[in-house]
Protein 1
Amino acid sequence: MSTIRVDVLVLGLGPAGACAATQAARQGCSVIGVDRKQVAGQPVQCAEFVPAMIGMDVADLQLSVRQRIASMTTFVEQDDPDIKENFPGYMLDRAAFDAHLVGQALASGAQCSLGVSARRITAEGVVILSDGRSIMPRVIIGADGPRSLAGRAIGQVNTALVETRQITVPLYHAHEATDIFLSADIPGGYGWLFPKSDVANLGAGVDPAYKHQLKSIIQRLHQTLMARDLVGASILGMTGGLIPVGGLLQPWGRIADTLVLLAGDAAGLTNPVTGAGISAAAHSGRLAGLAAAATTSGDLSAPQDYAEGYADELNDIFGPALARARQRRLALAARRPSEEDLRQSWIAYPQYWAA
């Protein structure tokens, strides 16, 4: 089979990849996007909360919203909860959200293939796909998650990760807060309950060394919330996955004449404390698509200039917050945390934001 030449190849069609494909296609690039999932966004591997500001990057967001979030309630060990009143956001139907974004990419002219993954990237920058196609792109956008093939190809690998598990359970009462559970018995992470109308996502994340404890952590949390008559016993669904928590990687590199840009989890843009990454994925994907289009526009400037500009913009927007979160995470991991340590490690408390 002959090699297909294209301006931009997007690996992964989650929020980062779909937004990148949309932007590059809208700028006139020929774009191919692939994702290993057979159906966009399924299975869901996400707690599905996004801050309200994501509406700046995603049009028609309300099509995917299950409910609004007004506040955050944080439980530290057995203490009374602390309530942060002004914490606006949305709980998404993540599968519908991802499908909507892929639909936007298709409508913009990108060729999107689901159920297709990248098998390998050659030293010449040719990408071999699982369906047998060989693609020679001018730009590869790696939006293929925390263990990105594109990232490995340019030596940028997420090495610090968190393991997560989540169940979906019936929610008995209307709830407009995200509930956060901080405890020394959830090492390297936290527990959560995120409401979605008549159901809730109940989960936890831990350092990989404690992965074997995830099942019991979730069971204890589930039993506690059942005793409060907040949720039901039925488990309606289960998911899990990896979250990168090491902070921002160098988000570009080269393979021969092919430029590689990383976005979303592949670039390490997930917050090392909260695990939040959807908003950063969508925003970085949009920026990556614009940078990719600029490198293929025929401008006399070197493609490296656009890549470095992309990296600078990511660092300006996300760098300080990621650096602070990483610092807080490392401090928390240094010893078994006290209640004060846990508060200092969480965004709802002023201690977190102190110098």
Note: The two ends are 58 Å apart (CA to CA).
Protein 2
Amino acid sequence: MIATLRGVVTEKLETSLVLEAGGVGYELFVTVDEWGSAELGAVATYYISEQIREDAHNLYAFSARASKQLFAQLIAVNGVGPKVALQILSAAGESRLRQAINSNDPALLKGITGVGPKTAHRVIMELRGKVEEGSAGLAPVADPTYQGLVALGYTPAQATAAVAQIPADISGDQSRLKAALKQVK
């Protein structure tokens, strides 16, 4: 099993990165945040979750060990495969997901593609008490941009994903909301 990979980010594909390590280009499936923070030509190290099936050999990459661990906990839930787990992490964000699990709040998960009400409840029930909230700061619930998107009718998952994609150089509530609205799907 591959535990970590260190190399140069050579390509950013639609939902993955290509990391060249030892003369081999590895396609790594990553969250939206990981994809956004990856810089072409930069040396990066990723913790790898290797998923081998008859028809595929996929590598899921995380820059933090805690993210990889949460991914492993998600795919252990019945009905949640690696692609859905990655979508959950991308849409909800790690800290918000941990908060939702520990506060028994499946609403965050219900708006995510591939996650129905039963799966959302199952994730919460099976992982409650098994994940720590962490110290990374709890997500954009207090963020005025997040609150504005939810007030406009977007799901918590959509609002979280949009807020996560706002460029760091944009400030001011109105400017951030405009940028977030361009990101909402």
Note: Strands lie at 4-12, 16-21, 24-29, 43-52, 57-62.
